[in-house]
Amino acid sequence: MVSSTIEHLKPPISESLLEGRANASSDGARRRAIFRIWRGDRNGGNFVDYSTEVGEGMVVLDAVHQIQAQQANDMAVRWNCKAGKCGSCSAEVNGKPALMCMKRLDQVDLNMPVIIEPLQAFPSIKDLVTDVSWNYEVKKRIKKFRPRPQTPDEKKAGGWMMKQEDIDRVQEFRKCIECFLCQDVCHVLRDHHKHAEFIGPRFFVHAAALEMHPLDTEDRIAELKGEQGIGYCNIGKCCTKVCPEHITITDNAIIPLKERVVDEFYDPLTRLFRMFKGK
């Protein structure tokens, strides 16, 4: 999954780094490992090898911070909570999108260089930091929540009444931390660069949370079919596999939205009804 555009720039492991790794302690508590980190900006760059000591319980972000503090003070890396809840430290580790704060080093083969690079679906700013502002602009274009009017009984009660099962259906979608790993792994954005025609899995989840809300009355189906490009998704489920919140993006959000598009625009009975209605 590592981008082919920078594959050829990966340097060979230097002899000094190999020697340092060979001299690591054998007790398993502490050892040296090589981290091959992308350094550069939107004009280009290259991978640089760093050898650093790692130990039990460390995650990738710990190693990056250690390298930043001891060897590369000018390295740019975005992070915030270090608890897997803010979505800031998204990157690609050995070619797979991941939160660096949640990727444990005991899950990585440290006998080989650990390759760390920025998200490939978005423009580079510097080193491991990418410009994800496109995502926020996309969100602004999605029709907002529009609740139905309250019934007389609801007005007396002071709020809307909903079935618990209807609330539970959309609750999963609200776990999204907007790490944009699903956007990064989606081939429509990553490989085909359809940013102008496709909003990506994160915003299909957002649209599903609105469309399936028991109080919402807005209609977003035409936009999903048109400028939001849901037809580009071939339900490969890559987005679901990388989601750190384990949201079932494809099955519970994208496929139901696709079904609504089919019902609205391609169902023969619906088309016949439109003919009689003159629409």
What can you tell me about this protein's structure?
There is one protein chain. The chain is α+β, with helices and mostly antiparallel strands. It has two domains: 4-130, Roll (Ubiquitin-like (UB roll)); 133-277, Orthogonal Bundle (Fumarate Reductase Iron-sulfur Protein, Chain B, domain 2), CATH 1.10.1060.10. The chain contains 13 helices and seven strands. It has a five-stranded mixed beta sheet with strand order 2-1-5-3-4, sandwiched between helices. A hairpin with a 2-residue loop joins strand 3 (90-93) and strand 4 (96-99). Helix 9 (201-211) crosses helix 12 (249-265). The protein is elongated and about 70 Å long. The protein starts with a helix and ends with a helix.
Strand fraction equals 5-15%
Give the SSE order as H and E letters.
HHEEHEEEEEHHHHHHHHHH
Number of strands: 7
Give the CA-CA distance, first to last residue: 46 Å
Q: Provide a count of the helices.
A: 13
Rg value: 23 Å
Average pLDDT, rounded to a whole number, is 90
Structural class by secondary-structure content: alpha+beta
The 3D shape can be described as elongated
